[in-house]
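Researcher: Before we compare anything, I want clean individual predictions. No alignment, no superposition, just each chain on its own. First chain goes here; please echo the sequence and then give the structure tokens.
Model: Echoing the first chain and its structure:
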Amino acid sequence: MPARLLDAQGGTRLEQLRALAQLLAAEIDACGDAKVLPALAKQYRETIREIGELEGAQEHGDEISEILAQRAASGKPGAVRKGRAGV
């Protein structure tokens, strides 16, 4: 692995993955060992995929969380309205 250190404890998960992707890209560029390159490339692809998933999750969020956030912002107290739920 590289001589440079990756601060694995600092930042968000997304920031850590971005730093790892940069580190892996530099290692791939500098790699002269044909036996090591496939493993580096695989890890790079997996890291990029996970970054994409996290970015997509942040951009789109999940519908339930959005609904609950809207309800909290509007001051409506619970997720179930007794008049509509037949309770």
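Researcher: Okay. Second chain, same rules.
Model: Second chain and its structure:
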Amino acid sequence: MLSYLLLEHLNPLFSPLRLFSYITVKTTMASLTALAIGLWLGPWLIQRLRRAQVGQYIREDGPESHKDKAGTPTMGGLLICLATVVPTLLWADLGNPYIWTALLGMIGFGCIGLLDDWTKVSRKRNLGLTSRAKFGLQCAVTLLVGSALIAMSARGDYSSALTLPFFKDIRPDLVLHSLAASPWTLPLAYSLFIVFIFFVLVGSSNAVNLTDGLDGLATGLAIICVCALAALVYVAGHSELSAYLDVPGVPLAGELTVFCGSVLGACLAFLWYNAHPAQIIMGDVGALSLGGAIGTVALLAKQEITLLLIGGVFVAETLSVIAQVGSFKLTGKRIFRMAPLHHHFELLGWAESKVIVRFWIAGFAWALLALSTLKLR
């Protein structure tokens, strides 16, 4: 915020500084700042976590090759959160409520992950918060984000209408006008809206968490998702581009490009230390915060359904777990050798690095498909 305000005051005195008022420039600076912070603080955080003996606990039924990962410093997602929040506060327009809502989604779910990680470390086992406790905390964060969206909707800064990929004339409104027209049905309409928000946020955060099982896998896929979302929020916030592509214009969403740039830089810095073999693991604090950030940005940009395409690999990982559990409970048989999906390919004989790179390629293909929906409608 300080750099943004300082540049705003200096612009009249030195005209070239106006360059920093452009979203593209601010996004670039936010990405570089996040990258620098992450690379600088990474070794210090790894050393502190090792001294505190904050190591990863490996699930007993996991692949045998993962036993060597036991003791690797975890809770590295703290680095991602810090390297995202600081550049966002430095370069984004903090008068924009979308920025604060995105930070709320990221930090809120990050705090849940931090509690989960700390529970694992303190109890020295691979089980963190109970399902009931985690569900309650996720509901609380969802209510906070949902309340922010409803407040912005009341001011006319946000729309509850959905954008469907491949269809430009079908935009259903979640808070139906027929329900909202009556004061008696208004609470029901907003309750349904909160439930939808819950599925988006909890689904995205848990999907990233399930995918975080190999060195750099979830980080690389998050980078791909954030880049795709950055393009979408930039288009939504640009009046001419949104009109040309017939995308619902969301004027305030353009500033989210700066936030996405911060997440990108933070993830790149973390990947430097998380690449195979990992020196640090993001833990739940990293996975849940990234998922919360991705889900919140998708909600703000009105790309909730498109997010299913952007995060195609995350969706596949989640569905593999659902299918595996469902099949075992119903038939006593397993569909995959192990779930989530990346473990199945490991047990088929794929090297860890090969699984990671091929899943990144698949994630890139899904993101390209999602971006193609801007014209294929």
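Researcher: What stands out in the second chain?
Model: The mean pLDDT is 86. Additionally, The CA atoms of residues 16 and 136 lie 50 Å apart.
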